[in-house]
Specification:
39% of the residues lie in helices and 17% in strands. A hairpin with a 2-residue loop joins β15 and β16. It is globular and about 65 Å long. The longest helix is centred in the middle third of the chain and has 33 residues. α4 packs antiparallel against α5. The chain is an alpha/beta fold. It binds 5-S-methyl-1-O-phosphono-5-thio-D-ribulose. The site of 5-S-methyl-1-O-phosphono-5-thio-D-ribulose has 17 residues, from α2 and β9.
């Protein structure tokens, strides 16, 4: 697959959604068909679709699928039942705010649209498709603004990233990997280093897969190798995605991001977060208020079906951590690269739900 055949993890096809099954990559490339909102909720929970913007887009389609099955012509009853669909979709994953943002946008459109219920349903489908298309455009803008923060020297950069903030984690193109893609197209990239990203290995499985599809040179390292690579001068820049950014610029992203930011700081390597405006949660003041998802301990004690740890040990499996704003050089958004301290002033007025 090349840029002529780009990766779109969530697509609307005639009357249903098709999701790339991200639990099967890189060994199998499959699409699953989703026709009911409950199936969409389960696809988000089981991470068939994952990554903050992608689950926002998936949840928007989930809202439409739920709306489509509501059997009433009464507007208030329709809105009440739509709220129950929203509740189920909101319960799937707690950290990525794009999920809540997309659901809120769908609810608001339903409330503000006049006319019969059939018309509301049609407008909901169009809104989900809009959210989908906007995200691809947004990611390309993030990629382009990312070019503006690249240091002039060396001419070809070695960029480290964590988890997967690529096309698979968005509607297409990616945020952090969007910056990487734009750097590659501009001839500014030597190589990507992809942290494997335990426990679910999104870096090893998904980021590496995306890079290989496009011929972008990629080296996978285990998470505990990043400091060593920096110490040896192998990394010029770090760029990661985010699941929720607080008003002060603290950023929640995949577990392990915080330690990467600390290590980058120790080596004087710039650390960037790339994310759309829909990932910023101005309702919360700082990162301590971001809900952190805890996942099944089996993700820690086993790899695939193989158990690694003795029965009797206990396990802790937070899926995300929070990188404090002072470790972040800038947040690269579709409105430009913005210092965390200026986020609220520069971007809050632009956010519409
Ligand atoms: O648990 P995941 O795989 O959904 O976590 C994904 C990440 O942490 C990504 O870095 C983040 O969502 C940004 S995606 C553009």
């Amino acid at each position: 697959m090349s840029s002529a055949n780009p990766v779109y993890p969530v697509i609307w096809h005639i009357d249903h959604v098709r999701l790339i099954d991200q639990t099967r990559l890189p060994n199998e490339y499959d699409r699953v068909e989703i026709r009911r909102y409950e199936d969409m909720a389960m696809a988000i929970e089981t991470m068939i679709v994952r990554g903050a913007p992608a689950i926002g887009v998936a949840a928007a389609y989930g809202m439409y699928l739920g709306a489509r099955d509501i059997k009433t012509e009464d507007r208030s009853e329709f809105l009440a039942q739509l709220e129950r669909v929203a509740e189920r979709l909101r319960s799937t994953r707690p950290t990525a705010v794009n999920l809540f943002w997309a659901i809120a946008r769908m609810i608001k459109v339903a409330q503000q649209t006049l006319g019969p219920v059939a018309h509301l349903k049609q407008v909901l489908l169009e809104t989900a498709q809009e959210i989908n298309a906007e995200d691809i455009k947004t990611c390309r803008q993030i990629g382009d603004y990312g070019l503006s923060v690249l240091p002039d020297f060396p001419s070809k950069l070695r960029i480290l990233t964590h988890c997967n903030a690529g096309a698979l984690a968005t509607a297409g193109y990616g945020t952090a990997l969007g910056v990487v893609r734009s750097a590659w197209t501009a001839g500014r990239l030597e190589r990507v280093y992809a942290d494997e990203t335990r426990p679910r290995l999104q870096g090893a499985k998904l980021t590496a897969w995306e890079c290989v599809q496009e011929g972008i040179p990629v080296t996978v390292i285990t998470d505990n190798m990043a400091a060593h690579c920096m110490q040896l001068g192998m990394i010029d820049l770090v760029v990661v995605g985010a699941d929720r950014i607080a008003a002060n610029g603290d950023a929640a992203n995949k577990i392990g991001t915080y330690s990467l930011a600390l290590v980058a700081k120790a080596h004087n390597i710039p650390f960037y977060v790339a994310a759309p405006l829909s990932t910023i949660d101005f309702a919360i003041a700082d990162g301590s208020q971001i809900p952190i998802e805890e996942r099944n301990p089996n993700e820690v004690y086993q790899v695939g079906d193989t158990r690694l740890c003795p029965v009797g040990a206990e396990f802790y499996n937070p899926a995300f951590d929070v990188t404090p704003a002072h470790l972040i050089a800038a947040i690269i958004t579709e409105y430009g690269a913005i210092a965390p301290a200026n986020l609220k002033d520069e971007l809050q007025p632009k956010q519409v739900v």
